Amino acid sequence: MDDCVAITLLRHGMTELNEQKRYSGWNDDMLSERGRKQLSLQAQLMKVKPDVVITSDLLRAKQTAAILFPSSLTHSMSSLREYHFGQWDKKSYDELKHEALYRQWLDNPLKVPPPGGESYDQFIQRLKTSWTAISLWCKEKSVSTIVVVCHGGTIRGLLELYAPIQKGFWNWSVPYGSGYSLIDSRHNIKEGKRCTLLQEVPLTEKANGQKNTIN
After folding, report:
1. Residue 165 belongs to a domain with what CATH number?
2. Pairing state of beta strands 4-11 and 179-185?
3. Total domain count for the chain?
4. Given a cut of 80, is residue 86 above it in pLDDT?
5. Which residues are known to be catalytic?
6. Domain range for residue 33?
7. Is the pLDDT of residue 212 over 80?
8. Are 163 and 195 contacting, i.e. CB atoms less than 8 angstroms apart?
9. Following DSSP, what letter does each residue of the chain receive, concatenated?
10. What is the pLDDT at residue 206?
11. Whole-number Å distance between alpha carbons of 2 and 167
12. CA 44, 47, 50, 54 torsion: positive or negative?
């Protein structure tokens, strides 16, 4: 593919809030010890060599980038943050399950926003803004390999918008420290089109030596 660009979306490592199964949106929690150990193992499998690393401006994303890509040039973007859970941030299902609005949100998360948080439409518009800014990096900096270290919800939203496979938000699996590479021409990425290739990350190889590519 001429003028090919690969944008790799990686989820941050596990935090204590993640371990406790609490909502973790815009709060600035740190990686847990378990999360750091898992990332150290992931770093040994990582084959991506980025021209630049762009992270969410939240600490857990920055810490993840420092472990996986310690020598890379790094920039942060607030628009890459996780979904904003508002008043539900840091709370668990058990703490919220008796609240009527929370139960409405569980039944229809695409239409019901959390109190003090953002709607799904606002979230998706924010991700489109992020993608546009990243595409400008491709053009202005003449880079071809970008790693974006962000959050599970952020990655699911970007895949829903730009992956070659059309799957709903909740149908994407994004393990901690792992993710996907979206690959296409510089022009198509700038135009906001769905990418033509999708690869799982960390990149592994099949028995015949070919990379696991999802078209």
Report:
1. 3.40.50.1240
2. antiparallel
3. 1
4. yes
5. 12, 82
6. 4-214
7. no
8. yes
9. -TTEEEEEEEEPPPBHHHHTTB--SSS-PPBPHHHHHHHHHHHHH-----SEEEEESSHHHHHHHHHH-TTS-EEEEGGGPPP--GGGTT-BHHHHTT-HHHHHHHH-TTT-PPTTS--HHHHHHHHHHHHHHHHHHHHHS--SEEEEEE-HHHHHHHHHHH-SS---GGG----TT-EEEEEEEHHHHHTTPPPSEEEEES--B-TTS-B-EE-
10. 38
11. 27
12. negative
pLDDT tens-digit readout, 15-69:
999 999 999 999 999 999 999 999 999 898 888 889 999 999 999 999 999 999 9
Tokens of 56: 């969410």
Residue 21 to residue 200: CA distance in whole angstroms? 25
pTM of the model: 0.91
